[in-house]
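Hello,

Following up on my earlier ticket. Below are the two sequence lines again, exactly as submitted.
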Amino acid sequence: MIVASISRGDWISLAYIVAIVSFILALRFLSNPAHARKGNLIGAFGMGVAIVATFFQPGLKNIAAILIVMALATPIGAYAARAVKMTAMPQMVALFNGVGGGAAALVAFADFHNSAPPAARLPLNSSIAIVLSALIGSISFAGSMIAFAKLQELIGGRPIQYPGQRFGNLGLLGAVFALGIAIVAGYEHQLILGLIIIGALAFGVLFVLPIGGADMPVVIALLNAFTGVAASATGFVLHQNVLIVAGMLVGASGTLLTLMMARAMGRSIANVLFGAFGTLQVSAEQVAASGGAVRPTTPEDVAVMLAYAQRVVIVPGYGLAVAQAQHAVRELADQLEKRGVDVKYAIHPVAGRMPGHMNVLLAEANVPYDQLKEMDEINPAFDQTDVALVIGANDVTNPAARSDTSSPIYGMPILNVDHAHNVVVLKRSMNPGFAGIDNPLFVDPKTVMLFGDAKSSVEKLISAVKTA
Amino acid sequence: MTGSFLIELTVLILAGFLGLEVISKVPTLLHTPLMSGTNAIHGIVLVGAIVVAGIPGQPFWLHVVTLAAVALGTGNVVGGFVVTDRMLQMFRRRKPGPEAEKTE
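Thanks for your patience. The regenerated structure is below:
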């Protein structure tokens, strides 16, 4: 009988295969919003199978302590996930990235202590995996914590720089790699691995600090990839295929998203990471000098314009998230649709602070997803659009990206908002966007500006549309 | 050892290509759930954390380190899947009239 010859270890491996298949299915189901939730449940099921199977590993001790820690951490994770507001989702994603990376680094450190007794030599593949897992995990942990602090506005979102930054960071990374090579070459001291972790943590901090808020989608996606690769390296450390595969799936996802986000900004990844974008390119006077011909308007005027339009396209940006205006915007769209106006939303791939940020916010406000249009789909439609309503978006609508070769965002694909017959920009003040770049859209003769908090402006528009 | 390493490397590379293949089919609409969903999946480090935390005879400080890894991994897994579920249940197609509220 075949069944009789299956050992306990084999059963555990089979359980891990179930987990791997579940993870792949979870990602497969994400290709369609109608099935995506089911896919996530399948993924959670697979994770549960993998975790339970791990407890049957022969020789596993301290089970009571492990279970107690898990029992304590579970409600904390669940509570955080339940309580977090949808507008705070980028921070949440950054936090989970960091937590996973930190766990990978700790596992590598612990395994190094256990498997490298003073006299013995580790096999090459083990020592490389330990170094990579500790290094990448630590970078991801520290970088994610800084990204979290920036998004949570615990520290300023603007790029923070110090003199000689690029060389300092490169030097630090070089030093950390040199220490890693030392371990692989046989200097297997815990102190060296400790120094690697400390150096990698410092690098993680220094590498995210100079990156501005508008570049966060790239950074978050990259940190996601890092954590996945760190988990995969941990799989090599422990000879666990389930970690190798699951980590690599995440690594592939993060890498793909990073590339897509960078492409959506028309910039290379290196430029995003080391460019410290938009810090000093435009001085305050330059913005003020060209900002003379702005035309402010009133909610009543905009309401009439919207109420008698045939096609309205709403262009949301990070300002919508900051003002938590997503529900008000949906209500405005409902009012307009009641009057027979065709309303669509134009979603730029890097609008907001993480990939897909605007889609999640609008979904929370019950905007049906077939109303959300991607850039390539909506751009040709702006020519037939009566009113483009820009809410808290700036750089992604900046026509300078198409025409002005001296603009720092030249070459970034943008939403062609300026092709609409009329443009209304809802904006808190005339401060430039996160990238600190002047936007000629604001002085376009077709454009009117409605100043104020996005949420209260939209609420005023709703009541004005009702009476228009 | 080398043999098993090469098998692991093969698995890694195949998983990478499979990941790119599967994920390139995810629409931009769902990129945030993709990120949080993959976040939950990299919580698989919890399995590694349990394995190292379960090694007997470690010094006390190492117990603390490995159990901290278990705590981080658990938070990662639970929080990741819960928040992804919360997000995905919000995505819905347009329904005619008041039925839109009924889907919950």
